[in-house]
Amino acid sequence: MTSVANFWAVIPAGGAGTRLWPLSRAGAPKFLHDLTGSGRSLLQATVDRLDPIAEGRVLVVTGANHRDAVAVQLPDLSDEHLIAEPSPRDSMAAIGLAAALLEREDPDAVMGSFAADHVILDDEAFAACVRDAVAAAAEGWLVTLGITPTHPATGFGYIHVGAPIDGVPAHHVLEFVEKPSVSVATQYVESGSYSWNAGMFVVKPTVLLDLLAESDPDFAADLRSIAQGGADAMAEIWPTLPKIALDHAVAEPAAAAGRVAVVPAGFDWEDVGDFASLGDLLDPADSGALTVLGDESLIQQSQASGLVIPASGRVIAVIGLDDIVVVDTPDALLVTTRERAQDVKAIVAALREAGRTDLV
Amino acid sequence: MTSVANFWAVIPAGGAGTRLWPLSRAGAPKFLHDLTGSGRSLLQATVDRLDPIAEGRVLVVTGANHRDAVAVQLPDLSDEHLIAEPSPRDSMAAIGLAAALLEREDPDAVMGSFAADHVILDDEAFAACVRDAVAAAAEGWLVTLGITPTHPATGFGYIHVGAPIDGVPAHHVLEFVEKPSVSVATQYVESGSYSWNAGMFVVKPTVLLDLLAESDPDFAADLRSIAQGGADAMAEIWPTLPKIALDHAVAEPAAAAGRVAVVPAGFDWEDVGDFASLGDLLDPADSGALTVLGDESLIQQSQASGLVIPASGRVIAVIGLDDIVVVDTPDALLVTTRERAQDVKAIVAALREAGRTDLV
C-alpha cells in the first residue's frame, strides 16, 4: 500500500452514538471504543486505515471535551493537527475548518474526510477507492465514495449514480437523496444505480471552500479567518457559524450543478448505529451463538444467542434467551433484544430527563 | 398475639439457596437476604414472626461461617442462644442439638423448629397454628404443621393426613411421602387429605430425643453429651454425628408408629426456591409488569415484564423482554427467564468447576 502525495486525511470525530448506550456516552462516545474486538478503538482503526495513504498527514477535528481522550488514543498526532471545536457546529463547520487550515498549510493538498466511527475491514479495497477519488478530486471534483448497498437500508441517504466521467475513475452524481422508505430503498437497490451515502468526501480544500462560498460566502470567509487568526479568531467566530451538515451546505447544491463525482466502493462498511448492527458486524454469518465482545472467560451461558458485552469485569450468566443484548458497564446495565436495539435511544432520553446526566 | 408459656423457637439457619445465585451465595445464603422488600431478611422476618409467641425464647442454629452475620442481623440474640455448627451435619444434628440444650435449660420446654428461609406473611394465622401444635406437643406428640396445598407442586414432600386426634387440636399423620410426580401430586391435592411438608416440627425436646434414641441411641446420647460438655464436647463429638435429615431419622419412623400429629395450616407459605417462585411471591396477581425488588429509581424500562433485582446500585435498563429475570450484584450478573429459573443451579456448578469459588 503506497502513499498518495499531498493527500490529507481529515477525521471528524463526533457523534454521541446514543443507541450504543451504556457503552457509548456523551463523555466517551462511540469512536473512542473498540467495537470490533481488534484492540483498537474505531478512531484508532480509522487512523490506522488512513495512515499508509496519508503518510502521517492526518488531521482530527473533535469536540473540546474529547480532545484529551483523542490525544491519549493518538499519541503520534501533533497538537496542531488535533483541532478542538469549542462547541458543536455540525459537519460543515468541522470539515470546512479543516479545509481552511489545509489550504494554508499545503496549497497542493487533496483532503479526504472520513468519520471516526465507521467500520471498514478491507483496508486495501478502501485505499484503492481513495486513490481513485484523489485522482478525480485533483481535477477539481467534489468526490464522494458510494458504498454498494447490500440490502434496502432505510437508515442511510442514497447517491444516484450517473454515467462515468471522461478521464477520471469516477461517475457523475445525479442526486443525493434522503433516507428512503423500505419500498423506495428496495427500488434503489434493485436498480443498481444507487449507492449508500457514507458521508465520505475527497476534495481539494479550496474547491470545497469555494463551493461553500457560492451558497454562503460569509461562512467560507469566516472559516478562512479562523484558520488565519488562530485561537482568538476561533473563540470569537466559531460560536457564530451556522449549524449545517456538509451534505446540505455543499454536496447537494454541487450535485445539482453537476460538480460531484462518485467512486463506487465495494468494500464492507458499517456505521454500527446500534447493538443490532454491531451484532451483525461481529457475527456476519448469524451463527445462532452468543457473541461476546470482550473477555469471553467472564461469560457463563446456556442456550443463549445474541450479543453480550462484559465491560465491567463482572461475571455474566445468560440462560435461555435468544437474540438477547446485554451490555454491562461499571455504572449502568442494558438488557434488551436485537429487535429492540433502536429503543435504547429512548432510555437515554429518559435518563437525561430524570437528571441522570452522569450516566448518558 | 399472646405468648405461649415455655415455647421455644428453634431456627435452623442453613441451606445455600443455589438457585437464587447471584443474590444468594455460600457466604451470604438466602436466609440473610431481604427477598420480600420488607426491609428485613428472611431470618429476621422468621424471628419477628416467632418472637411474640416465644417472648424472646429463640435459639438459632447456623454454620460457623455464618455465625457473625447472624449475630449482626439479630443483635438481641444472646451468645448462648446462637449455636454455631462446626460443620454441616444435616437437620437431625442441628435440631437435635437444640433439643438437647433446651432439655437442660428448661425441662418444661416445648420447642418449635422453623426454617430461617421460608416466607409466611400472615403472622396471626401462623401463631394460631403454632398454639395448636404446642397444645398437642404438650401431650407428647411429635407435631408438624401441614400446609394446605394450592397446586400440585412436585418440589415438596407431602403429609398424608388422618383422622382428628381426641382431645388435641390436631390430626393423625398416616405417612410422610417423598416429592411426587405431577400426576401423583394432582391426586394428592384433589383428595383433600394431603398437606405439604414444610419441615416445621413442634415437640417437647425430650420426646424428640427419645424418639431418636429408639432408632439410633448413640446419636441421641451424643447430642446430650454435647449439650452437657460444652465447647470441648462439641469439637470432639460433632464431626462424628450422622448426616441425616430429621424427617428420615425421626419423623417417618414415628409416623409409621402412629406418634406424629399434624395441625392443618391454611396460611400462605413460600420456600422461595428460585427466581420464578420469588417472582410469584412478589407479584401474586401476575400483573404483567416488571417487578422490582430493591430501589425502583434504578430501573428504566420499556415493555418489560418479569423480575429485576438491582443489588449493585447501578442503573438497569430493560427493553422489550417478557418474563425476564435480571439479578445485578457487584461482582456477578444473571440474565435469564422465569421459565429457566431452575437452571441457575447449573451455572453455579459450572462456576465452581471453573474455580470461581469467590463467586458462588
Distance between the termini of chain A: 40 Å
By CATH reckoning, the class of the largest domain in chain A would read Alpha Beta
Radius of gyration of chain A: 21 Å
Q: Would you tell me the structural class of the helices and strands of chain A? A: alpha/beta
- Number of separate strands of chain A: 15
Oligomer: homodimer
**What is the makeup of the main sheet of chain A?**
5 strands, mixed, barrel
CATH superfamily name of the largest domain in chain A?
Spore Coat Polysaccharide Biosynthesis Protein SpsA, Chain A
Percent helix of chain A: 25-40%
Mean pLDDT of chain A: 95
- The appropriate CATH architecture of the largest domain in chain A is Alpha-Beta Complex
> What count of helical segments of chain A does DSSP give?
10
CATH topology (fold) name of the largest domain in chain A: Spore Coat Polysaccharide Biosynthesis Protein SpsA, Chain A
Which stretches of chain A are poorly predicted, pLDDT < 50 over at least 5 residues? none
Shape of chain A: globular
Name the chain pair whose interface involves the most residues. Answer: A-B, 34 and 33 residues
